[in-house]
Design a protein that fits this description.
Helix content: 40-55%
Family: Belongs to the UPP synthase family.
Structural class: alpha/beta
Binding site for Mg(2+): 17, 207
InterPro entries: UPP_synth-like, UPP_synth-like_CS, UPP_synth-like_sf
Order of helices and strands: EHHEHHEHEHHEEH
Bound molecules: farnesyl diphosphate
Mean pLDDT: 95
Radius of gyration: 19 Å
Function: Catalyzes the condensation of isopentenyl diphosphate (IPP) with allylic pyrophosphates generating different type of terpenoids.
Number of strands: 6
Distance between the termini: 25 Å
Low-confidence stretches: none
GO molecular function: ditrans,polycis-polyprenyl diphosphate synthase [(2E,6E)-farnesyl diphosphate specific] activity; magnesium ion binding
Number of helices: 8
Largest sheet: 6 strands, parallel
Length: 241
């Protein structure tokens, strides 16, 4: 076994895809598929912690998902609200920091309030950070960062510089993910092989892993395969080793 030289990604990010197809295959409603997907979220949290992953991020609701039937959007909002209430104990007991990243536009006050209080309650925990990308898109993130960047640059006056800090560093500090390391490993389930407007900037040097199982079926064995695959990657960041 090569266990002693196994590389563990610091940040694992997941595009949880295939809830609808999982349900359809079983003759169940798409909403049932999302509910089962929430079980995989719970399992993944535990498996990530046990593996020593420090940041687990999940793409739970994209800006584009507003285009789904109202019944499904409502169900996804309901699942988010339920998770915020029901999983609180899990965050507290395991000392997991909770973060949500995305636009607040269109999200109910009740959900926003619960997010704010869970984020505040778990702020000092450091066993792992769970980040839920909710009402997020990579292009939205870059756009809002560009606006902040323009303001900061103009506040810097005519020189437009800030000592030793490069424009790239200033821009990165404007992204919604500031302070969170870029994903080392991005997993997408369901066999689809695309980024779907997820962390477009942040995934510049991320390793991708595509799993051929639907998200509700993504459990322990699949986590182990993904981590094994990552462990065998040779990351060069455009350089030569
Ligand atoms: C993609 O499957 C999944 C989603 C758009 C939603 C993911 C949400 C959850 C797993 C529920 C709970 C999570 C949290 C953190 C509250 P799809 O619907 O696109 O499936 P399909 O491609 O088969 O149609």
């Amino acid at each position: 076994m090569e266990n002693d030289i196994r590389k563990i990604p610091v940040h694992v990010s997941i595009i949880m895809d295939g809830n609808g197809r999982w349900a359809k295959e079983k003759g169940l409603s798409r909403i049932y598929g999302h509910r089962e997907g929430a079980e995989s979220v719970r399992a993944s949290c535990r498996l990530a912690m046990e593996s020593g992953v420090k940041y687990l991020s999940l793409f739970a609701f994209s800006e584009e998902n507003w285009g789904r039937p109202k019944e499904e959007v409502d169900a996804l909002m309901g699942l988010m609200l339920d998770s915020l209430v029901n999983e609180r104990r899990m965050f507290m007991d395991n000392r997991i920091r909770f973060r949500v990243i995305g636009s607040e536009q269109g999200i109910s006050g009740e959900i926003l309030d619960r997010i704010a209080s869970l984020e505040a309650e778990t702020r000092d925990f450091d066993a792992m950070t769970l980040i839920v990308f909710f009402n997020y898109s990579g292009k939205w993130d870059i756009m809002q960062a560009a606006e902040k960047f323009a303001c900061r640059k103009s506040a810097m006056g005519s020189s437009g510089t800030s000592g030793d800090v490069s424009d790239k560093e200033i821009f990165e500090s404007c992204l919604s993910t500031y302070g969170i390391p870029d994903p080392d490993l991005l997993i997408r389930t369901s066999g689809e092989k695309r980024l779907s407007n997820f962390m477009l900037w942040q995934c510049a040097y991320t390793e991708f892993y595509f799993a051929d199982v639907f998200w509700p079926d993504f459990r322990e064995k699949d986590w182990a395969l993904a981590l094994d695959s990552y462990s065998n990657r040779d990351r060069r960041y455009g350089k030569i080793k």
